[in-house]
Design a protein that fits this description.
mainly alpha, 12 helices, 2 strands, 2% strand
């Protein structure tokens, strides 16, 4: 971009771009479609975390493999977890790229313990005070990892939830939380009560990072936790109560290839 937009023009531009994507039509080709198939909070949570957990690579592959996951769980995620259906899986079964059934089993073993003790991940989030932390997503994952590791006899996860919490952008968990927390009634589901949408962080990947830099919203070159914090802080200046709304704008700007019209 040759000319930097004013703050007011930039916000107007972001609002316009977000509104183009945050529509019901977006759902059919996005992994958010999978948790939206369910009405029970527990089913929604399980599928939101699993669908986001494999959300790297081509969207068509992600959606195909999320469909495969639902089939494995007989389209009854909560019952599958609590009945320990995952124990019957071949550990070598490939779920998605480098994510295998052994990784799924490890994660679901821990998830079962969370449900057994707290009833829902939302209730667990409330119990550990995720919303009281400056970075709720990282706090939630830290506490989830403790229970998951304990439930697996002290074996930490190899895949699934990341362990390098000081540096990870936590993109996939932040995306799942966007689905679960944001409550505009369009794409995101807004079924959680433990974390306010004002405290969500942007799901940062290479595409979103490059778009944000092109728009002058982000200076840091690495797509890490510090970059997430920098970008989200900037977006909060435009919409303090709902900064992650602009995830739609940053997605749409790059996909639609409109930078040339702004330069």
């Amino acid at each position: 971009m040759q000319d930097k937009m004013s703050e007011s023009d930039l916000r107007l531009f972001l609002d316009e771009q977000a509104a183009l994507i945050d529509r019901p039509e977006f759902i059919a080709e996005d992994p958010v479609q999978f948790p939206r198939r369910f009405s029970d909070l527990r089913d929604i949570e399980i599928v939101a975390f699993l669908a986001s957990m494999i959300a790297w690579g081509k969207r068509t592959m992600i959606c195909n493999n999320a469909e495969k996951l639902l089939t494995i769980m007989d389209h009854s995620p909560y019952s599958y977890v609590m009945d320990e259906g995952y124990l019957d899986l071949d550990p070598q079964l490939n779920i998605h790229r480098t994510f295998f059934a052994r990784d799924l089993r490890h994660f679901l073993t821990g998830l079962r313990e969370i449900y057994r003790r707290f009833g829902s991940i939302d209730a667990f989030s409330c119990h550990v005070g995720a919303a009281d932390d400056a970075a709720p997503a990282w706090k939630l994952v830290e506490e989830m990892q403790k229970i998951i590791t304990e439930a697996n006899g002290g074996e930490p996860a190899r895949r699934g939830l990341p362990g390098n919490l000081k540096s990870t952008a936590l993109k996939r968990v932040n995306m799942a939380l966007r689905w679960l927390v944001r409550d505009d009634g369009i794409v995101d589901m807004g079924v959680w009560k433990s974390i306010p949408k004002s405290k969500l962080y942007i799901p940062l990947d290479v595409h979103v990072g490059n778009t944000a830099r092109e728009l002058g919203l982000l200076e840091r070159r690495q797509n890490d936790r510090k970059a997430v914090e920098e970008l989200t802080l900037r977006l909060r200046s435009f919409r303090p109560d709902d900064p992650v709304y602009y995830d739609y704008a940053l997605f749409g700007v790059g996909v639609n290839g409109i930078f040339k019209s702004l330069s």
